[in-house]
From TrEMBL:
Residues 2-83 form the GST N-terminal domain. CDD domains: GST_C_Phi (cd03187), GST_N_Phi (cd03053). It comes from the Eukaryota. This is glutathione transferase. One of its GO terms (molecular function) is glutathione transferase activity. Coiled coil: none annotated. Signal peptide: none annotated. Conjugation of reduced glutathione to a wide number of exogenous and endogenous hydrophobic electrophiles. Belongs to the GST superfamily. Phi family. The gene is GST6.
Length: 219
């Protein structure tokens, strides 16, 4: 059976979301790089894979998918085993909690944290733009409020959806990894349960492997 293909560089947070799930389930896969400088993401060939001209795109035989969370869920369903069940769809309540914290990541956690990553890493290192400290300061205040909720949750459970690692936790990996390369990483020290949760994720072999491919240089 041919390996599935993921189109886009591992350093992309959305691509990394898919790759970490593939690693967790032990699936065979191929990463096909997309050259943004050459505008390959807008090429007719890539637009067949992703009509919005974005990454990632995903191919499994004649099936083409886009949108990283949808791809990741497909992967976790296809390769689910009794030992690796990161969506917990066999248990209605557990699956619901996975969904809840996946939504929190997308709509509350990432919107607070990702501007800090952009201003401290992506803009200065990749775009040659200065850091907008006002955006950073405002986002840090938002993130502190979010982390207070996470601290309360993780004081009761080892992981976000319960006492089991799930897709909800893995979703947090890409942007949090880059946040930890900013000058504001020490913020997590103020939230000991959040810090312990993050350290437990970083100890996972799949995440260690992906992290080695994503290492950014500190500004």
């Amino acid at each position: 059976m041919a390996p599935v293909k993921v189109f886009g560089p591992a350093m992309s947070t959305n691509v990394a979301r898919v790759l970490v799930c593939l690693e967790e389930v032990g699936a065979e896969y191929e990463v096909v790089d997309i050259d943004f400088k050459a505008m390959e993401h807008k090429s007719p060939e890539h637009l067949v894979r992703n009509p919005f001209g974005q990454i990632p795109a995903f191919q499994d035989g004649d099936l083409l998918l886009f949108e990283s969370r949808a791809i990741a869920k497909y992967v976790l369903r296809k390769y689910k085993t009794d030992e690796v069940d990161l969506l917990r769809e066999g248990n209605l309540k557990e699956a619901a909690m996975v969904d809840v914290w996946t939504e929190v990541d997308a709509h509350t956690y990432n919107p607070a944290l990702s501007p800090i990553v952009y201003e401290c890493l992506i803009n200065p290192l990749m775009r040659g733009l200065p850091t907008n400290q006002t955006v950073v300061d405002e986002s840090l205040e938002k993130l502190k409020k979010v982390l207070e909720v996470y601290e309360a949750r993780l004081s009761q459970h080892k992981y976000l959806a319960g006492d089991f690692v799930s897709f909800a936790d893995l979703n947090h990996f890409p942007y949090t990894f880059y946040f930890m390369a900013t000058p504001h990483a020490a913020l997590f020290d103020s939230y000991p349960h959040v810090k312990a949760w993050w350290e437990s994720l970083m100890a996972r072999p799949a995440i260690k492997k992906l992290a080695a491919q994503m290492v950014p240089k500190k500004p």
